[in-house]
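**User:** My hope is that you can spare some time for a protein that puzzles me. As I understand it, each token names a local backbone shape. I would be glad if you read both lines and explained how they fit together. The protein I mean follows directly.
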Amino acid sequence: MSGNAIIGQSGGPTAVINASLAGVIEEALRTSSIKNVYGMNFGIEGFMQEKIIDLGKQPKEIIEGLKHTPSSALGSSRHKVQDEDFPRILEVLKKYDIRYFFLIGGNDTMDTINRVEQYCRKAGYEMTGVGIPKTVDNDLFGTDHTPGFASAARSNILNVMQSGFLARDMQRVDQFVIYQTIGRDAGWLAASTAMAKKAEDDAPHLIYAPEFDFDREKFLDDVDTVYKKYGWVSIVCGEGIKYADGTPVSASQVKDKFANVEFGAMGGTSVAMNLHRMISDKFGFRGEFQITESLIMSAEDRALEQDIEEAYRCGVKAVELARDGVSGMMVAMQRVSNDPYTIEYGQVPLNDVAVKAKPMPLDYFNKEGNFVSEKFLEYMRPLSGPLPEFVRLQPIQAKP
């Protein structure tokens, strides 16, 4: 099938999303059946407005530089495609003779490409659609992990590791610290911070993820136990934790176009702020909360080379699949082994990924649901990269 290709980016960015873009562009330019390579400026929303960039005419150094450029170079969108959008989408596809359609994103993005691909098929328009995984949340089905997760995890690990040393040394001033991670439906990022813990009393002490119902009294008991043991408490929480009745701990009522709760939006306080209030009210402790939000999505200075390369390979694989006539699929990474760490690139049906969130397996947590298990640490070790080694002063008492 001969025609043009178009690429879009949707949802929140990652530190390596542009590496996937570079992979798609470079492999598409090497593919004889693809005449021109275009980019959607601001996702499917910009596509319908014909905001289309000619990527094939970009200087070579810019395409190469994408691998180490943060955020979404094409511009992103969170537009939820409506039924009335499809005729316009098909019109633009035909106008620009687009026969290869690629989107880089998470489960909502996979829903978009899935619906566009199915609509074109029903309309009799020959087009190949392939999704490229992306999300720091790591909650896509069918893939061992997502490009961008490892770098975001490492960023959080370093934050918790270093803020933990600060909190330990400032315990006579602040008795606790709460670190909030991104993670609407799954606790992968919150759980990853356990890699910061090298000694028993290192941060984090407690981790709370959306996979478990939040219990206020149990939480305060956990805090009390840790404080009595160490004299200070380090807590990590995912932004999406909820009470048993489904109410967000953040109390947020704002939702996006895909009906997802916007935990960082106005209309509620943050999880970390509410947990802070609970501890202060109960124990009278002074403490602080730290909320990173989207900062880790663009921390290219903390991006892992392995993550960059995997993101790039996912982009290349997407074009390879499309060239072979494979449509309605998302590129997936399958782990072959932990030691040596080996990944293979395959595919998973878009129907299995679209608008679904992959929670962490329950055996990745301890029985109390407030920390991770050794099985999860085995999963994370090949992804997190080398971590710094800090030292402690030895408690050698001076003599008068």
